[in-house]
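Friendly challenge for the regulars: who can give me the structure tokens for this chain first? No prize, just bragging rights.
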Amino acid sequence: MSERKIGPWARLGLDFGPLLAFFLVNAKWGIMAGTAVLMASVTLSIAVSFALERKVAVLPIVTLIMVLIFGGLTLALDDELFIKMKPTIVNGIAATTLFGGLLFGRALLQPLLGAAMPPMTEEGWRILTFRWACYFLFLALLNEAVWRNFSTDFWVSFKVFGNLPLTIAFAVAQLPLMRRHHRQET
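First reply, four minutes later:
Bragging rights claimed.
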């Protein structure tokens, strides 16, 4: 079966719809209901992605597993601590994986994103991997600071409306590096 692609707006809806649903349900019914909706909507999003594209990337699967584990703990133990720690742990794992790859001489962003990115030199991939590893570490530490020092509602709002603009700004800030290390296909 041939590989199918979905449009950018559909992709945006599938990727960020669950977060928006989490925010809206949390605002009306609280963190436990929001967590249940997050678990269901991430599962549905991945199922729809698979139905449309006949494949799912590794990162959404990891996200689904983490949402189900930490969301499940949150609901089973009636303790919001677990859902608040999930971003710290996921971003910490991402940072550790990328830093570890670099330590062993591998820019692990290249096999993860290479097909979706313009071709770059090995040095460009190493620099980009290092920067993303640092960014994931920053997000992990930022999540810790926010959930420990602010209300649950503030944390949810920041998770939805703070992380996304920060990540977009960070990604856009990488464009000069990607241009500088662009490699022509042979």
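The first helix runs from residue 8 to 29. The chain has a mean pLDDT of 91. Your move, everyone else.
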